Amino acid sequence: MPDMSHAQRHSSIGIHGLHQHEGAHNIKRIRLLRRARWAALGVLLVLGAGAAVVMTERAAQARALTASTQENAKVHVYVVSPRPARGQQTLQLPGTLQGYIETPIYARSSGYVKQWHKDIGSRVNKGDLLAEIATGEIEQQLAEARANRAQVQSNLQLARTSFERWQGLRQRDAVSQQELDERQNTLKLVQANLAASEAVVQRLELQLSYNRIVAPFSGVVTKRNIDVGSLVDAGNGGAPKLLFTLSQTDVLRLYVSAPQSAAPRIKAGQEAQVTLAELPGQTFTGKVVRTAGAIDPATRTLQVEINLPNPDGKLLPGSYVQVALQAAGADKPLLTVPNNGLLFRPEGTLVATVVDGKVQLKKVTLGRDLGVRIEIQNGLSPQDKLIINPPDSLAEGDVVVASEAPVPANNKEGGKDGGKEGTKDAAGKEAKPATGPEAPAKAERSAS
Question: The CATH number of 75-84+334-447 is which of 2.130.10.10, 3.40.50.11270, 2.40.420.20, 3.90.550.10?
Fold first, then answer.
């Protein structure tokens, strides 16, 4: 029955009163739907708030990363100002003492050493006997030469008597003039033979005198290379070649090589202070006696000779010494910079300075190396700001952030802070400039 109503169908199957509860069920469903809507809205709000927080944090992190990247991109450097060299400039040079006269002594005649009289360390006077050489062959040659001379002298006497006799006969016209001339020529020939014999005798006597080795001057025997029975040859080509070495030590001399930059300020008569490590606290005063007057093109140095009195013999020839020369007369004091502020490039030696926050490279001429500092002859002014420990990649026009390098507390003299300016920075004991990774890295390289 298609037209049957809902009430009739319900009554037919035994369901009664369902229509009475439909309103209550609809109200509950509406309430549940409302609660679901509010719950969904709350979830959406929470999710939106979380998304907003995440986006805000990401934006802040992006801004921080951008700022950090920009900060890290900056090159932070330490700068110092060049300093003038303080006080009178002193030139320290190494040298080796040597005797005022040092002579190797060789034999003038060949033979065996008969006896030596002076050993190393012996002080001798001029003419003192040092050694004797046995020269039996020369003695025999001398005896033969003297015998020949006596024979020639007898012939000379006979020739002279014969000439005088023939001269008298010629006056009586008993002999011819030719016969007289022959007797005269015979006399002259014998006279020449006698002169030759005399020369041979004198030569052998002189050669025999060389068997006595004597001191050519007063001094000290510093070497003895022979012993009794040693075979020596005349000259310096035999074995052993050298007999003695004699040195005059009352006055010593030494030669030093002054750099070309100081050559114009070194003059004869200038005082020189000599010190030895073996004699601490003692200074010996010498005098510049002469210079080479020319620069050695191989070393670019000037050879300087210094004489040093040594009356008490305290200084020994051959000693290594330090010589201090006062480089007076300079037109103006030179500037000094830390040696960790130099750049060595193909175009020469450069320094990096900061001008209006940008790098400016300057070519300089170096002077003396003072250890942790070095002299600059030209190319810098006292107003320049020099970058210390510049990176190898630094180029002209680079933008940098410059800060004054902290000075160590114990830096009281010029020239002692060049190698220490970055040491304390790396240790973190001094005030640091603006933050940045470059400056601590540079300080660390300086400390190493």
Answer: 2.40.420.20
